[in-house]
Amino acid sequence: MSYFIDLVIVGLSIGMIYGLVAIGISLIYSGLDVVHFAHGEIYMLGAFIGLWVFNTFKLPFPLVLLSSMIITGLIGVVIERVFYRPILKSGGGYTVAGMAMVICGFGMAFVLQNIAFLIWGPRSLPFPVTFGMPIEIGNLTLPSSYVWIVAAALVLMTSLHLFLKKTRLGLAVRAVAGNKEIAYLMGINVPLTISVTFGVACALGAAAGVLVGPINYVHVLMGLGILVKAFAAAVIGGFGSLPGAVLGGLLVGVVESLGAGYLSGNYKDIYAFILLIIVLMVRPAGFFGVLAKTKA
Amino acid sequence: MANHMLTTTDVVGGYGSVQILNGVSLSVERGKIVALLGGNGTGKSTMLKALSGLIKPWSGEIHFDGERINGMRPDLIVRRGLVQVTQGKEAYPGMTVEENLLLGAHTRPERAARARGLERSYTYFPILKERRKQLTGTLSGGQLQMLCVARGLMSEPKMMLLDEPSAALAPQVVLDIFRAVARICRDGMTLLLVEQNVRMALLLADYGYVIKDGVIHIEGPAESLINDDAVRLSYLGGTVADRDQKLSM
């Protein structure tokens, strides 16, 4: 029984990571109407930037997390402004992105991988942060890094929720996701709001990268695996829905962990997709599937 | 010209390479209600988009409150006090009534202005106060239209552009909405009413323009338009509207 609980806890914390990345993908999808295929690399970049901040400035972990989010968020804004926006515009505004954007996203993934390779090299680097003693609850021992992941992810998700629900800018982000023309008529600076959306999504991806660093190694190719998992999570939850992204992430994490624990660790990556296929057979729109125009 | 809130001269424009507006000139006096009338595909909506900045006119001039605004980004036009009230179907269905209203006050970050806007909206449309926590998707068509008018008021504009407030609504509901709009205008709002429902629009308006094939076809004071043979034949079906009876409030 305790083995089962251990697996669920590991699954939930990894699921939080998937959830954070999936939220970013969903935010970009609803805000810009494009699927961002370079989001795994944003996560990788976030992890490396976090590691760099950690090694250079010896800051405490929460500050490392925060600074990586800010730096990566700003990099994301630059990427969107310089590379994605001209393509989106040439497609007739932000709603018709088409194939060019998909290819540009993949291209951006390779470019970012290679930039990271040039800077940090091909080796897996450890993220030598120490979280202190494992936490004991009853006869259960939780490695504190997992507790950290879950706590930090929950704080971030709650902040995002409050931002979208309670602030003027958050409301604008939702309006732009719903309908850009009407958002314009409300006096919202739509191009700026799109940048904010993209920056926030990238910051959340970076947070996931920094959080996963201490339990995994940081590696140039770490973005590949996460992208497909986060996609599975986003689709399971219902593409474009933020609560769906979180739920999907947690489901993928737990199923993967249980599968690896009870069946075989060699096929760890398959379980997420078996889950995806089953969910799509039963509920093709995902759990929180939203009609295209009632999002926001 | 000092008394003119909005003036357009020979506005030409369209989508892609399709020219819709073939030189539209109209003007709206401060504090007046002007109707822009026309059927489907006459250029009404395109003109509205040119005024609110959603499309850039190819040539011609648009002046608002002493400033040239053609080609300006839509959010900057809203900041200058010219707001387009969308049709009811264009409220955000996934947001609550109050969130929709606050969205209208996006250009007003100050807490006091937002509270004042909500207060004002609820005075004109008390039903919205009852429904303020409900999702907009649950409102009726008339309530949605009221919400959109109220949302337009939230930025405390100098002038509003009303996009077919009567579209797809029952006559009684339209009358309710027009009454509220008349009250808003009596309280000092300038209005350009874009309508297909010519009779209703002329009951409310001081002056009217009839647009056809992208140019102003007929214009004149509302009383004379309502009796104008050409307007009557093309839009009113040959009957004379009883002006005093309909809008007595």
Summarize the structure.
The complex is a heterodimer of chains A (296) and B (249). Chain A is mostly helical and 296 residues long.
Q: What do these coordinates show?
A:
The complex is a heterodimer of chains A (296) and B (249). Chain A is an all-alpha fold and 296 residues long. Chain A has a single domain (2-123, 144-294), classed as ABC transporter involved in vitamin B12 uptake, BtuC, CATH 1.10.3470. Chain A is 74% helix and 2% strand. Chain A has helices at 2-32, 39-57, 61-90, 98-120, 144-166, 168-178, 180-185, 190-212, 222-237, 242-263, 268-282; strands spanning 135-137, 140-142. In chain A, strands 1-2 form a two-stranded antiparallel ribbon. Chain A is globular and about 60 Å long. Chain A starts with a helix and ends in a 14-residue tail after the last helix. In chain A, 50% of the residues are buried. Residues 92-96 and 291-296 of chain A have low confidence and may be disordered. Helix content of chain B is 38%, strand content 26%. In chain B, the strands form 2 sheets. Chain B has a 6-stranded mixed sheet with strand order 6-7-8-3-9-10, with helices on both faces. In chain B, strands 2-1-4-5 form a 4-stranded antiparallel sheet, covered by helices on one side. Chain B is globular. Classes of the chains: A mainly alpha (296), B alpha/beta (249). Chain A binds chain B through residues 168, 171-172, 174-175, 178-179, 181-182, 184-190, 290, 293-296, and chain B through 52-54, 73-75, 78-79, 83-84, 86, 90, 92-95, 99, 102-104, 106-107, 109, 137, 151, 155.
